[in-house]
Amino acid sequence: MTNTLVKNFIGGEWVAARSGETFESTNPATEELVAPISKSGAEDVNAAVQAAKDAYKNWRLTPAPRRGEILYRVAHLLTERKEEIARLMTQEMGKVISEARGDVQEAIDMAYYMGGEGRRLMGYTAPVEMPNKFGMAIRDSVGVIGLITPWNFPVAVPSWKMLPALISGNTIVFKPGEDTPPGEDTPAVAAEFVRVFADAGLPAGVLNLVTGAGETGSALVENRDVRVISFTGSTQTGLSVYSKAAALGKKVTLEMGGKNAIIVLDDANLDLAAEAITWSAFGTTGQRCTATSRLIVQKGIKPKLIEALVEKAKLLKLGNGLDESVTMGPLVNQKALDKVVRYMDVAKSEGVKILVGGERADLGKGYFFQPTLFDGVKQGMRVEQEEIFGPVLSVIEVESFEEAIHVNNSTAYGLSSSIFTENVNAAFRAIRDLTTGIVYINHGTTGAEIQFPFGGTRGTGNGMREAGQTALDSFTEWKSVYVDFSGRLQRAQIDTDKILGEN
Ligand code: UN1
Predict the structure, then answer these.
(1) CA-to-CA distance for 281 and 374, rounded, in angstroms?
(2) Is 84 a catalytic residue?
(3) How far is CA 177 from the centre of its chain?
(4) Inter-residue long-range contacts of 346-350, CB under 8 Å, 24+ positions, other chains counted
């Protein structure tokens, strides 16, 4: 892979950016080059959109079960190439290899799930008010879909968008990675993911890839032939995409930030909670939108739980994620590391106590930061409200169940939350009262499965959901169909009484 230029995939051809410009994708653990990448501009994006528009003519008419068969082949090829793609992912964005395999597995799961949807894509019929008349609502494709996806789940998250969009008969222009200067962070793995679709027999132009930075994404959002934008990434970029797309009347699916919490009540299973919190807070180096960044803990259990968490944080092994014994990789780039470092000053200025971590981890190379635990955090502090996106957990002590729920719900985000308790009544009250899109009982805040809706309330999104059946809502339009076989004019709402008893 190394040193081979990663090209755009447009109309079934791998082509360099028309400007000839490139940027570099580097390994965050070693700071070595992974690959040079094509830096695309509006002309590349527009060519990709045109290719997608041309391919749509046939793809929308391809029977959905046939489209599903291609998705099954995608699932098979991804299974075959799982290790290869996972290794490239670890090299490009740093997550440990076992997690990278899980990322690819999530796309395999989605390919099977949406492949099966090829024989469902269900609409519905309902009775109509006139005799000799039939009514149904069917899901229709939309056209060209624009995808803008993040680097933290470089295969799983694009798969949540691509697979439902494709099975529904749409064509795609895919722009991976957020606009982290100087470009995106996972273009090489995105290209290998797209190659799987091409090798599975997806017709030319149905899925197109353009790599680049912020201006590439803007060109996609601004192209009038792109009717839907599906975005996952930072709140700042997401809101800017949303407003630009809204001005052009586009449908937008947004998945943005999170400030997820685990609540631990006094009656919880302590060992289980400690293990789950460690995984949810420090897995993927805290760079999941579902990562736990707040621990809301009842007073009684707090001392023992904190002791267990400090112990576990110290046992994490930092390093290059390709080493199977490593349990925490680096942050994705210098900018992400600088942000985490800045939050240590914020914490100090807010009077927070650092129980463990709090500093860069010096491994010679790479963007490593120690797993960090903040104690004495109060609801409303910046470290409690803002998404840090690193291995940093704030501990907030509470007196009661009610206070825990209140603290959990008092952030600008609403993606996922969790509660550890052995009390079934408390568990069901929590399900009722936690105002996030995903709720876990006795399980950390990460680990959503693809057959259920994924997304959040408040500032996390715009009310849309990914995955599950709800994914189809982003990529289809409803078409209501009325068939009158009476041979005469039957006016709905007007001729109903007159016709009563006739057939
Ligand atoms: C994300 O963090 O952007 O639930 C996605 C999880 C994963 C997906 C996370 N299945 O943590």
Answers:
(1) 12
(2) no
(3) 11
(4) 346/382, 346/383, 347/374, 347/383, 350/377, 350/381, 350/382, 350/383
Runs of H (alpha helix) within 358-466:
382-385, 401-409, 424-433
DSSP secondary structure code for residue 34 in this structure: E
Overall residue count recorded for the chain in this entry: 503
pLDDT at residue 213 in the model = 82
CA gap 193, 219 in Å, rounded: 22
Query: What is the C-alpha separation between 150 and 175, in angstroms, rounded?
Result: 9
> Among residues 106, 178, 192, 289, which one is catalytic?
289
The helix or strand, by DSSP H or E, that contains position 367, with its residue range, turns out to be: none
- Judged against a pLDDT cut of 50, whether residue 182 lies above it is answered with no
| Residue pLDDT, tens place only, 419-457 | 999 999 999 999 999 999 999 999 999 999 999 999 999
Which residues have CB under 6 Å of ligand 1?
A: 106, 152-153, 156-157, 288-290, 446-448
CA distance 145 to 350: 44
Which segment of 185-189, 199-203, 297-301, 314-318 scores lowest on mean pLDDT? 185-189
**What is the widest separation between alpha-carbon atoms in the chain?**
86
Q: Is the C-alpha dihedral spanning 194, 198, 202, 206 positive or negative?
A: positive
Distances (CA, A) of 217 to 55, 157, 174: 21, 17, 9
Which residue type does 143 have? G
The answer to whether 363 and 370 have CB atoms below 8 angstroms apart is no
Q: Which strands form 251-255's sheet, in the order they lie side by side?
A: 13-15, 8-10, 207-209, 171-176, 144-149, 226-232, 251-255
- By most ligand atoms within 8 Å of CB, the mutation choice from 178, 289, 413, 451 for ligand 1 is 289
Instruction: Determine the distance separating the centroid of ligand 1 and the alpha carbon of 284, expressed in angstroms.
Output: 10
Q: Are 326 and 178 in contact (CB under 8 A)?
A: no
The neighbouring-strand residues paired with 172 are: 145, 207
Model pTM above 0.85 = yes
